[in-house]
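Subject: sequence -> structure tokens, single chain

Hey, anyone have a minute? Need the predicted structure for the following. Not urgent.
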Amino acid sequence: MPPDIPTDPGPYAAFIARYLMQPVAPGSSEPRAAAETEAAVGGDRWFWADDNAKVLEFLTLPAVWRRHPREVADAFRFLASLCHGPFILRRRGHPRLEEVSNDGGGRARFAHTFMSIECDLPKGVVQVGMRFHDGRNARNLTLTGNHVQFVQGGVRHTLDAEDAIAAWDIRRGDDGRLRLWHASELFFDGGGTRLRLGRLTYAYGFDARSMAIDAEAALDLDPAAGDVSEVVLTIGQDDLSHGAGGVGYGALHAEVPGPAPPLRVLAGEPAKRRHPAPGAAYWCLAQRDGMRGFALGIHSLPREPARVSAFRVAGRVPDRLHWVASEHLFPAPARGARLVAAERKWITSGGFYDRVSDCAGLLRGHDAAPGAVPLDLSVSYDYGAELGAFARCVRGLSGDGGPSDPRLRDEARALYDRYLGVYAENLLGAHRGGDAGAVFSRPLAFVAQSLVDMLAATGEARYREMLRGAMEVLLAFQRTQTDVAGGPSAVFLMGQSGGSAVPFMDCHSAALLALVRAMPVLEDERFAAALDHGLGAYCLATLRFELGRLRSKQDTVGVDFVDSAGKRRVMGGEWNFCAALTLRAFKALRRSRHPAIQAIEEKHRDRLGLLAAVMHDQIRRSMRPREGGALEVRTSVLSGEGNSETQPWAALALAEDALDD
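Reply:
Had a minute. Here:
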């Protein structure tokens, strides 16, 4: 370690305690959690589950825990507050709902805490997408594509809603609420006479304190239309699988009353179909081909489930839904009445959507007690960071000389065991069942490391057996290749299908760290070969690094690999979280007392020493001293600040002992 890089974890922890730990709700001092960044990013102040887990993992180092017990408690309580049934929810944020643009003609854009909202009301279109700070913004939901069906004089009629729009408005109140609406004047042929059916209004409501989207269709019948019956109002979702940003939906799940199992509709060949679902109290549209921690979902709770009669479904390409509309039925004859169909919707970008009753229960519970700040109901990416944090709490409270808090230890262990079971069932189980996209390798590596910690803390053999199973799956992410000299090499991919089958440096390094930690426990000869070949994939790389308007040529470390087209490429480590995770793996390798690991470290020592020097210099140039003895590690050499992922990972890489035995 260069002498100008502190190995004492204290300065890194001081930055977290002084600058990142902030109130989760504005105007309140409690509860606190680690904010994504010290200052709001573009008006956003977010608090992530997985980042707080990474912070907690670092804070539970004995030397840090003794100095910062309040921060440990705050991070743990925040994580525990996001645990609901099988779900660890993704993030909270300070309320925000601001107008970005408005042309005065019904076309406008708005920024919500976690959503982008756009409308073209003269066309009857409202679009909603998830918001991120790393280029993953997408258009998840397009609310349009509606019609009305009814019977009058024994004749069934169908009228398009958006073709007859005559009025619209945008209303944003001082209370943080937004209402978008458009209204259509509907006419039909009543036996050679043009009759007015009435006014059909679609209204969509948003609230800065919630992720809920209120969708309402209201038909004010004209008494002159006479008696109409069998009226069907729809709430439509169109252009569902446009492909931009990976958006595509392939399944519909619905909770129906009675003992019958949930309705499941899987997209197949392009067709239009009607699927009866009388009384559906919850339904969702789900992405089928993404990793579960990233898969998209659109969830709906009908206001009056008894009105729901069916779902209309259409596709344009195989295995993709293009348009889906829920049908709300008003069978009785009506004259001059007001008929209303309504649903409350949420969008997510990660979930276990086949667990229909659990999803429905989560939505109902949240709807009944929404809270004062918006909550992203997506699941945390893959539970590995959270399991690692809970395991470190248990381990830190189970050894001699460490802090003593039996209640926290027991709560952490209960959470660990619960979500280890969820991970085994919903992710490892799905992977073993043939779902190649279920698992994300980096969190899987963290799960493996958490099992090493739990075995060290408890000595229970069941954790060893689960570690064996997790490592078996992790090895399936290994892809062998040859290096530039023609020797054996291997990389660990992020995922096993589509665009995820790439060895991002953080995923590769997390896998090697898991191998180093698992080898002394399991004594599997395959681990030594995987570690040896995986170390051979690291290389020096000179890359063009762009950040906003800044551009630089950066000498860094990367992962050398041959892509599916046979082209040699490099996945760079210009971001400090990648370099830090790699340095942590190198340090664990260097400190290991296991004979086979020592032999591998000796074989690669000279190369790894050079690579480590480059990464240490990269992190050193990214450091910034702060008041109160704090030391900030910025996210890159070009970045203006650090964040709640980079800081703890850099600290664990640089601290003398990260407990990675």
